[in-house]
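Re: the 470-residue chain
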Amino acid sequence: MSKEKIQKIHEATLRILEKTGMEFVHPDAQKILKEHGVRMEGDVAYFTPEQVMEWVGKAPSSFLFEAINPENNCRVGDGHYVRGVTIVTNLIDRDGTMRDATIEDYLKIQKLYEANPNIGLNGGMTVDPVGIPPEWNDLVLNYASLCHSEKPLYTAGGSYREMEAVIEMTRTRFGYSEEEMREHCILVGLANPNTPLLATDDMIETILTFGKYRQPVVICSAAMAGTTSPVTLAGTITLTNAEVLGGIILAQMANPGTPVIYGTASTAADLRSCAIAIGAPESALCVKYGAELAKFYGVPSRGGGTLSDANIFSPQCAYEGELTYLASRQHGINLMLHSAGVMNGYLSMSYDKMILDFEIQDHVDRYLRDIEVNEDTIPEELIDEVGHGGEYLTSDHTYDYMKEELLTPYLANRGSQNDPQTFYKNVDKRIEQLLGAYKKPEVPADVLQKMQDLLRKHGIDEEIIRRCTV
């Protein structure tokens, strides 16, 4: 990665934020920015280079992300890495049928994530189940996750009212008061600008609510080169950088030192259809530069995943997903959302792709782990002993190293089998293994009652509560 390129993007970003500015439509954001000396003309804020660097510099470089089960705690930033949830709307079945997700689908996905030891994050809107009131979608799904997961949790963004409710639900499960919650990072939210250079009400209210409780928030741009951002990737990455920094500045002015995560979901538009192209090589390049820019500013990064634009499970899912995942891992993305199952331009997921993506991640992680070179891994005495034309299969050295040295895939068809259904049989078998390994957490009865009372307070139907609890 060229430091000169990063420096040029940074300098262009400073000029854009000073000359073009960023629009903040919410009066609360405007008030905070004015109080801190930011020049406002109407809804547009104009930041000096000194303001940008001062306030971005107040964000921490990492934070401890805590889970109900402390064994699942993880650090985000400073070289640490965690991958987690899918964020989509509907499901694509094996026969290509696109359908609405149900609450039962949501819980099944939660269990698959929970049972995979390589997934560190759960929760969020992995799918959008039918039947839940839209204005309380995040709250209901947060409750379902708190009942079924002991890993750190993510939630989407929204209004003051819903974000306050989601945070109250989470701290109730942890048993924290409002003040105690400010000492622990137990929930990460997501705030998205509207490209180009527009901070929406939901983005601002999410940033301000999470900052109030000192909970981390991902500030993530999703520019599309050629439609919502310049067709050149350098232009798109610079615009993305400006939007993310504008959000970080607001977060730090409102609550200095609150954890923020530099997010990029930017990519190209397919100019034949104007559809987003999340599985494109341009997506991987945006992740690459987003990760490096986050390091430049000293904040954690979010991006990537095994992404695909396929709208049916096919080889396209694999070759697109592996590239975007590899870019994320190679360039040190600290927090990965959309880690498994995402297809159809962020709209859909499939169980088949989810399990395939688990396997892709295992393959890439093994490649990046590289090899150990020492006296034990170069067994000269054994090589001399076996000599010419011998075998190593029955040696103790093979037994000692085979599990940690060689990746045994769950899905890959090796050897002489030629049944065309083998791959799908292996997918089904892996799903059964993960669901069989899943263990539902025990939620204390009094805590469960308080959480359910919060749902009832907001008019959530008893049948929805029951289905989210079982």
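The longest strand covers residues 187-191.
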